[in-house]
Design goal:
Blueprint: H1 24-32, H2 44-58, H3 64-82, E1 104-105, H4 112-118, H5 155-162, H6 169-181, H7 202-210, E2 214-219, E3 222-226, E4 240-243, E5 245-251, H8 253-264, E6 269-275, E7 280-283, E8 291-297, E9 304-309, H9 311-329, H10 338-349, E10 351-357, H11 367-379
Parallel strand pairs: 1-9
Antiparallel strand pairs: 2-5, 3-4, 4-8, 5-10, 6-7, 6-10, 8-9
Helix pairs in contact: 2-3, 6-7, 8-11, 9-10
Protein backbone atom coordinates (compact mmCIF):
# COMPACT_ATOMS: atom_id res chain seq x y z
CA UNK A 1 0.00 0.00 0.00
CA UNK A 2 1.14 3.53 -0.75
CA UNK A 3 0.44 6.59 1.42
CA UNK A 4 -0.40 9.18 -1.23
CA UNK A 5 -0.13 12.00 1.32
CA UNK A 6 3.55 11.33 1.76
CA UNK A 7 4.32 13.91 -0.90
CA UNK A 8 2.95 16.63 1.40
CA UNK A 9 5.63 15.91 4.00
CA UNK A 10 8.38 18.43 3.33
CA UNK A 11 10.86 16.24 5.17
CA UNK A 12 10.69 13.74 2.28
CA UNK A 13 13.22 14.92 -0.28
CA UNK A 14 12.80 12.24 -2.91
CA UNK A 15 11.48 8.83 -3.87
CA UNK A 16 13.36 5.77 -5.09
CA UNK A 17 11.49 3.16 -7.11
CA UNK A 18 12.81 -0.32 -7.84
CA UNK A 19 11.10 -2.35 -10.55
CA UNK A 20 11.84 -5.59 -12.39
CA UNK A 21 11.64 -5.08 -16.17
CA UNK A 22 8.35 -3.17 -16.26
CA UNK A 23 7.72 0.44 -15.27
CA UNK A 24 3.91 0.12 -15.34
CA UNK A 25 3.43 0.05 -11.55
CA UNK A 26 5.84 2.94 -11.01
CA UNK A 27 4.04 5.00 -13.65
CA UNK A 28 0.71 4.42 -11.90
CA UNK A 29 2.16 5.50 -8.56
CA UNK A 30 3.58 8.65 -10.13
CA UNK A 31 0.22 9.42 -11.70
CA UNK A 32 -1.54 8.93 -8.34
CA UNK A 33 0.99 11.29 -6.70
CA UNK A 34 0.16 13.90 -9.30
CA UNK A 35 3.67 13.80 -10.70
CA UNK A 36 2.59 12.45 -14.07
CA UNK A 37 -0.28 13.55 -16.28
CA UNK A 38 -1.03 10.34 -18.13
CA UNK A 39 -3.11 12.10 -20.79
CA UNK A 40 -0.70 14.94 -21.56
CA UNK A 41 2.96 14.21 -20.80
CA UNK A 42 4.07 17.67 -21.88
CA UNK A 43 1.87 19.33 -19.26
CA UNK A 44 3.25 17.36 -16.32
CA UNK A 45 5.74 20.03 -15.34
CA UNK A 46 3.17 22.83 -15.60
CA UNK A 47 0.65 20.93 -13.50
CA UNK A 48 3.26 20.34 -10.82
CA UNK A 49 4.17 24.02 -10.73
CA UNK A 50 0.50 24.92 -10.22
CA UNK A 51 0.29 22.44 -7.36
CA UNK A 52 3.42 23.93 -5.84
CA UNK A 53 1.95 27.43 -6.02
CA UNK A 54 -1.27 26.32 -4.31
CA UNK A 55 0.76 24.54 -1.64
CA UNK A 56 2.88 27.61 -1.01
CA UNK A 57 -0.18 29.86 -0.67
CA UNK A 58 -1.99 27.48 1.67
CA UNK A 59 1.04 26.64 3.76
CA UNK A 60 1.19 27.87 7.31
CA UNK A 61 5.00 27.93 7.22
CA UNK A 62 7.09 30.75 5.84
CA UNK A 63 10.11 28.57 5.43
CA UNK A 64 10.95 29.34 1.79
CA UNK A 65 13.74 26.74 1.75
CA UNK A 66 11.20 24.01 2.40
CA UNK A 67 8.97 25.27 -0.43
CA UNK A 68 11.88 25.40 -2.89
CA UNK A 69 13.06 21.93 -1.84
CA UNK A 70 9.58 20.54 -2.35
CA UNK A 71 9.32 22.14 -5.79
CA UNK A 72 12.71 20.77 -6.81
CA UNK A 73 11.71 17.31 -5.59
CA UNK A 74 8.48 17.31 -7.56
CA UNK A 75 10.11 18.68 -10.71
CA UNK A 76 12.71 15.91 -10.40
CA UNK A 77 9.94 13.32 -10.28
CA UNK A 78 8.29 14.95 -13.27
CA UNK A 79 11.47 14.78 -15.31
CA UNK A 80 11.86 11.08 -14.51
CA UNK A 81 8.23 10.49 -15.44
CA UNK A 82 8.61 12.24 -18.77
CA UNK A 83 11.73 10.20 -19.47
CA UNK A 84 9.64 7.02 -19.57
CA UNK A 85 8.19 8.19 -22.93
CA UNK A 86 10.01 6.44 -25.75
CA UNK A 87 12.62 8.47 -27.56
CA UNK A 88 13.14 5.57 -29.97
CA UNK A 89 11.34 2.23 -30.46
CA UNK A 90 14.19 0.65 -28.50
CA UNK A 91 15.84 1.85 -25.31
CA UNK A 92 18.93 3.93 -26.11
CA UNK A 93 22.19 3.19 -24.35
CA UNK A 94 23.27 5.57 -21.59
CA UNK A 95 26.95 5.32 -22.55
CA UNK A 96 28.46 8.60 -23.78
CA UNK A 97 30.07 7.08 -26.85
CA UNK A 98 26.63 5.88 -28.05
CA UNK A 99 24.80 9.15 -27.41
CA UNK A 100 24.14 9.75 -31.12
CA UNK A 101 23.22 6.16 -31.97
CA UNK A 102 19.71 6.06 -33.39
CA UNK A 103 19.63 3.03 -35.73
CA UNK A 104 19.75 -0.67 -34.86
CA UNK A 105 18.89 -3.96 -36.58
CA UNK A 106 15.66 -5.49 -35.32
CA UNK A 107 17.13 -8.91 -34.61
CA UNK A 108 18.52 -8.06 -31.16
CA UNK A 109 15.35 -6.26 -30.02
CA UNK A 110 14.77 -8.85 -27.31
CA UNK A 111 18.48 -9.23 -26.44
CA UNK A 112 19.68 -5.60 -26.39
CA UNK A 113 22.52 -6.23 -23.93
CA UNK A 114 24.00 -8.75 -26.32
CA UNK A 115 23.90 -6.23 -29.17
CA UNK A 116 25.55 -3.54 -27.04
CA UNK A 117 28.34 -5.94 -26.07
CA UNK A 118 28.88 -7.08 -29.65
CA UNK A 119 29.26 -3.49 -30.86
CA UNK A 120 31.13 -2.11 -27.86
CA UNK A 121 34.40 -1.66 -29.75
CA UNK A 122 32.92 0.21 -32.73
CA UNK A 123 34.52 3.56 -33.49
CA UNK A 124 31.21 4.99 -34.71
CA UNK A 125 27.56 4.08 -34.31
CA UNK A 126 24.86 4.44 -36.98
CA UNK A 127 23.25 7.86 -36.89
CA UNK A 128 20.43 8.80 -39.24
CA UNK A 129 20.83 5.70 -41.40
CA UNK A 130 22.33 2.23 -41.06
CA UNK A 131 24.57 2.46 -44.09
CA UNK A 132 27.01 -0.25 -45.13
CA UNK A 133 27.32 -2.78 -42.32
CA UNK A 134 30.76 -3.76 -43.66
CA UNK A 135 32.11 -0.23 -43.19
CA UNK A 136 35.41 -0.24 -41.25
CA UNK A 137 34.04 2.64 -39.14
CA UNK A 138 31.38 0.34 -37.74
CA UNK A 139 33.54 -2.73 -37.41
CA UNK A 140 32.29 -6.29 -37.16
CA UNK A 141 29.66 -7.67 -34.83
CA UNK A 142 32.05 -9.40 -32.46
CA UNK A 143 31.66 -12.78 -30.78
CA UNK A 144 31.79 -11.20 -27.33
CA UNK A 145 28.09 -11.65 -26.66
CA UNK A 146 28.45 -15.42 -26.68
CA UNK A 147 29.87 -14.97 -23.19
CA UNK A 148 26.79 -12.98 -22.21
CA UNK A 149 23.59 -14.69 -21.14
CA UNK A 150 20.93 -13.29 -18.88
CA UNK A 151 20.17 -15.47 -15.91
CA UNK A 152 17.23 -17.83 -15.91
CA UNK A 153 18.06 -18.89 -12.37
CA UNK A 154 19.51 -22.20 -11.33
CA UNK A 155 19.14 -25.32 -13.44
CA UNK A 156 15.96 -26.30 -11.61
CA UNK A 157 14.43 -22.89 -12.29
CA UNK A 158 15.35 -23.13 -15.95
CA UNK A 159 13.85 -26.61 -16.21
CA UNK A 160 10.66 -25.30 -14.62
CA UNK A 161 10.44 -22.71 -17.39
CA UNK A 162 11.76 -24.69 -20.36
CA UNK A 163 10.60 -28.17 -19.40
CA UNK A 164 11.83 -30.86 -17.01
CA UNK A 165 11.72 -33.59 -19.62
CA UNK A 166 10.47 -32.55 -23.08
CA UNK A 167 9.95 -35.60 -25.25
CA UNK A 168 8.15 -34.22 -28.29
CA UNK A 169 8.41 -31.09 -30.41
CA UNK A 170 4.96 -30.12 -29.16
CA UNK A 171 6.42 -29.85 -25.65
CA UNK A 172 8.86 -27.22 -26.94
CA UNK A 173 6.10 -25.46 -28.87
CA UNK A 174 4.15 -25.13 -25.64
CA UNK A 175 7.05 -23.33 -23.93
CA UNK A 176 7.14 -20.70 -26.68
CA UNK A 177 3.35 -20.30 -26.56
CA UNK A 178 3.38 -19.87 -22.80
CA UNK A 179 6.05 -17.20 -23.13
CA UNK A 180 3.77 -15.29 -25.50
CA UNK A 181 0.91 -15.68 -23.02
CA UNK A 182 3.07 -14.45 -20.16
CA UNK A 183 3.17 -17.58 -18.01
CA UNK A 184 6.84 -18.19 -18.90
CA UNK A 185 8.81 -15.01 -18.14
CA UNK A 186 11.81 -15.63 -20.42
CA UNK A 187 13.08 -17.84 -23.18
CA UNK A 188 16.71 -17.88 -24.32
CA UNK A 189 16.07 -15.47 -27.22
CA UNK A 190 13.94 -13.03 -25.25
CA UNK A 191 15.29 -11.60 -22.00
CA UNK A 192 12.21 -9.43 -21.41
CA UNK A 193 8.47 -10.14 -21.46
CA UNK A 194 6.45 -9.72 -24.65
CA UNK A 195 6.55 -6.18 -26.05
CA UNK A 196 3.33 -4.14 -25.56
CA UNK A 197 2.71 -3.79 -29.30
CA UNK A 198 2.52 -7.58 -29.53
CA UNK A 199 -0.28 -7.68 -26.94
CA UNK A 200 -2.63 -6.73 -29.79
CA UNK A 201 -1.92 -10.04 -31.54
CA UNK A 202 -1.12 -12.16 -28.47
CA UNK A 203 -3.76 -14.91 -29.02
CA UNK A 204 -2.76 -15.31 -32.66
CA UNK A 205 0.93 -15.49 -31.77
CA UNK A 206 0.24 -18.15 -29.14
CA UNK A 207 -1.67 -20.18 -31.74
CA UNK A 208 1.17 -19.91 -34.24
CA UNK A 209 3.71 -21.08 -31.66
CA UNK A 210 1.61 -24.10 -30.72
CA UNK A 211 1.58 -24.87 -34.43
CA UNK A 212 5.37 -24.88 -34.63
CA UNK A 213 6.15 -21.35 -35.78
CA UNK A 214 8.39 -20.53 -32.83
CA UNK A 215 8.41 -16.75 -32.55
CA UNK A 216 11.49 -14.86 -31.38
CA UNK A 217 10.60 -11.45 -32.85
CA UNK A 218 7.60 -9.79 -34.47
CA UNK A 219 5.92 -6.46 -35.06
CA UNK A 220 2.56 -5.52 -36.62
CA UNK A 221 2.30 -2.95 -39.42
CA UNK A 222 1.63 0.68 -38.51
CA UNK A 223 0.48 3.27 -41.02
CA UNK A 224 0.95 6.80 -39.76
CA UNK A 225 0.05 6.45 -36.08
CA UNK A 226 0.50 9.64 -34.00
CA UNK A 227 3.94 9.74 -32.42
CA UNK A 228 2.29 10.00 -28.99
CA UNK A 229 0.31 6.80 -29.54
CA UNK A 230 0.29 4.85 -26.23
CA UNK A 231 1.51 1.64 -27.87
CA UNK A 232 3.33 2.53 -31.07
CA UNK A 233 4.40 6.10 -30.38
CA UNK A 234 8.01 7.30 -30.08
CA UNK A 235 10.16 10.29 -30.94
CA UNK A 236 8.20 13.11 -29.32
CA UNK A 237 5.04 14.99 -30.16
CA UNK A 238 3.75 16.15 -33.53
CA UNK A 239 4.99 13.27 -35.67
CA UNK A 240 3.70 10.19 -37.44
CA UNK A 241 5.24 6.73 -37.14
CA UNK A 242 5.20 3.79 -39.52
CA UNK A 243 6.41 0.22 -39.50
CA UNK A 244 6.39 -2.80 -41.76
CA UNK A 245 4.99 -6.10 -40.55
CA UNK A 246 7.79 -8.43 -39.45
CA UNK A 247 7.86 -12.00 -38.21
CA UNK A 248 10.92 -14.03 -37.15
CA UNK A 249 10.69 -17.64 -36.03
CA UNK A 250 12.30 -21.05 -35.87
CA UNK A 251 10.53 -23.62 -38.04
CA UNK A 252 11.07 -27.15 -39.29
CA UNK A 253 12.21 -27.76 -42.89
CA UNK A 254 8.68 -28.80 -43.85
CA UNK A 255 7.15 -25.61 -42.48
CA UNK A 256 9.94 -23.60 -44.13
CA UNK A 257 8.72 -24.98 -47.46
CA UNK A 258 5.16 -23.97 -46.59
CA UNK A 259 6.27 -20.46 -45.69
CA UNK A 260 8.16 -20.29 -48.98
CA UNK A 261 4.94 -21.07 -50.85
CA UNK A 262 3.07 -18.49 -48.77
CA UNK A 263 5.57 -15.71 -49.55
CA UNK A 264 5.61 -16.62 -53.23
CA UNK A 265 1.85 -15.95 -53.39
CA UNK A 266 2.19 -12.48 -51.84
CA UNK A 267 4.34 -10.07 -53.91
CA UNK A 268 4.58 -7.62 -51.00
CA UNK A 269 6.46 -10.17 -48.86
CA UNK A 270 10.09 -11.22 -48.78
CA UNK A 271 11.71 -14.01 -46.78
CA UNK A 272 15.19 -14.78 -45.49
CA UNK A 273 15.99 -18.15 -43.92
CA UNK A 274 19.11 -19.95 -42.71
CA UNK A 275 19.79 -23.13 -40.77
CA UNK A 276 22.51 -24.04 -38.29
CA UNK A 277 24.69 -25.39 -41.09
CA UNK A 278 24.61 -22.01 -42.84
CA UNK A 279 22.34 -23.04 -45.72
CA UNK A 280 20.50 -19.91 -46.86
CA UNK A 281 17.16 -19.45 -48.56
CA UNK A 282 15.81 -16.18 -49.96
CA UNK A 283 12.37 -15.69 -51.47
CA UNK A 284 11.14 -12.57 -53.28
CA UNK A 285 14.42 -10.78 -52.64
CA UNK A 286 15.73 -8.62 -55.45
CA UNK A 287 19.06 -6.85 -55.54
CA UNK A 288 19.28 -4.55 -52.57
CA UNK A 289 20.23 -4.48 -48.98
CA UNK A 290 18.92 -2.79 -45.87
CA UNK A 291 15.17 -2.40 -45.29
CA UNK A 292 13.74 0.22 -42.93
CA UNK A 293 11.26 -1.58 -40.66
CA UNK A 294 10.33 1.40 -38.48
CA UNK A 295 10.45 5.07 -39.45
CA UNK A 296 9.02 8.36 -38.30
CA UNK A 297 8.17 11.75 -39.81
CA UNK A 298 8.51 14.74 -37.47
CA UNK A 299 8.32 18.53 -37.86
CA UNK A 300 11.62 20.21 -38.77
CA UNK A 301 13.52 16.93 -38.79
CA UNK A 302 14.73 14.45 -41.36
CA UNK A 303 12.92 11.15 -41.58
CA UNK A 304 14.15 8.84 -38.80
CA UNK A 305 14.70 5.12 -39.45
CA UNK A 306 15.57 3.64 -36.04
CA UNK A 307 14.86 -0.04 -36.78
CA UNK A 308 16.14 -1.82 -39.87
CA UNK A 309 16.67 -5.28 -41.33
CA UNK A 310 20.10 -6.02 -42.75
CA UNK A 311 20.60 -9.45 -44.40
CA UNK A 312 24.25 -9.54 -43.31
CA UNK A 313 23.39 -8.68 -39.70
CA UNK A 314 20.65 -11.33 -39.80
CA UNK A 315 23.25 -14.02 -40.56
CA UNK A 316 25.38 -12.86 -37.62
CA UNK A 317 22.31 -12.92 -35.37
CA UNK A 318 21.42 -16.41 -36.64
CA UNK A 319 24.73 -17.80 -35.38
CA UNK A 320 23.97 -16.42 -31.94
CA UNK A 321 20.36 -17.58 -32.06
CA UNK A 322 21.29 -21.17 -32.90
CA UNK A 323 24.02 -21.20 -30.25
CA UNK A 324 21.42 -20.35 -27.61
CA UNK A 325 19.67 -23.67 -28.20
CA UNK A 326 22.83 -25.32 -26.84
CA UNK A 327 24.03 -22.94 -24.15
CA UNK A 328 20.64 -22.11 -22.62
CA UNK A 329 18.49 -25.20 -23.23
CA UNK A 330 20.35 -28.31 -24.39
CA UNK A 331 22.75 -28.07 -21.44
CA UNK A 332 19.89 -28.76 -19.01
CA UNK A 333 19.64 -32.43 -19.95
CA UNK A 334 21.91 -35.44 -19.69
CA UNK A 335 23.88 -36.25 -22.81
CA UNK A 336 22.08 -38.92 -24.85
CA UNK A 337 18.75 -38.54 -23.06
CA UNK A 338 15.54 -38.18 -25.08
CA UNK A 339 15.24 -34.51 -24.10
CA UNK A 340 18.85 -33.85 -25.09
CA UNK A 341 18.39 -35.48 -28.49
CA UNK A 342 15.12 -33.61 -29.07
CA UNK A 343 16.64 -30.15 -28.50
CA UNK A 344 19.80 -31.03 -30.41
CA UNK A 345 17.77 -32.25 -33.39
CA UNK A 346 15.67 -29.06 -33.45
CA UNK A 347 18.82 -26.94 -33.30
CA UNK A 348 20.43 -28.84 -36.17
CA UNK A 349 17.42 -29.14 -38.49
CA UNK A 350 15.24 -26.08 -37.94
CA UNK A 351 15.54 -22.87 -39.93
CA UNK A 352 15.52 -19.35 -38.57
CA UNK A 353 13.12 -17.48 -40.84
CA UNK A 354 12.54 -13.73 -41.16
CA UNK A 355 9.58 -12.45 -43.19
CA UNK A 356 8.97 -8.80 -44.06
CA UNK A 357 5.68 -7.51 -45.44
CA UNK A 358 6.27 -4.29 -47.37
CA UNK A 359 2.55 -3.51 -47.46
CA UNK A 360 2.04 -1.63 -44.19
CA UNK A 361 -1.33 -0.17 -45.19
CA UNK A 362 -3.45 -1.57 -42.36
CA UNK A 363 -7.08 -1.02 -43.43
CA UNK A 364 -7.23 -4.65 -44.52
CA UNK A 365 -5.70 -5.91 -41.28
CA UNK A 366 -2.38 -7.62 -40.67
CA UNK A 367 -1.89 -9.41 -44.00
CA UNK A 368 1.25 -11.22 -42.87
CA UNK A 369 -0.40 -12.50 -39.70
CA UNK A 370 -3.45 -13.70 -41.63
CA UNK A 371 -1.22 -15.56 -44.07
CA UNK A 372 0.77 -17.12 -41.24
CA UNK A 373 -2.41 -18.25 -39.52
CA UNK A 374 -3.48 -19.90 -42.76
CA UNK A 375 -0.19 -21.78 -42.84
CA UNK A 376 -0.62 -22.54 -39.16
CA UNK A 377 -4.02 -24.05 -39.76
CA UNK A 378 -2.41 -26.51 -42.15
CA UNK A 379 0.15 -27.40 -39.49
CA UNK A 380 -2.47 -28.38 -36.90
Amino acid sequence: AVDYNIGDDCSVHGFHFYTLNLERSTTRILASLGALDVDSPTSAGAALQENDTDAAIGSETNDQDQIVTRRERKESISEKARSTKRVLPWKPSTMDNRSKEDVRPINWSNRPKSYVMRTDDWDEFPNGRWGDSTSPAFGELSDLSHFYSFTLGCDDDRRAMLGHCPLNESDVYEVFARYVEGTVPHIPWCETPLQPESFLIQPQLAKLNRCGLLTVNSQPPVDGAPSNHPTFGWGGKGGRVYQRGYFECFVSPDKTNRLTSMVTKHPSMIMYAVNNAGQELRVGVEEGGVTALTWGVFPNREILQPTIFDPDAFLVWAEEAFSLWSTMWLSLYDFGSESYELIENMKDTYYLVAIIDNDYYTNDGFLLLDALLEVGGKCS
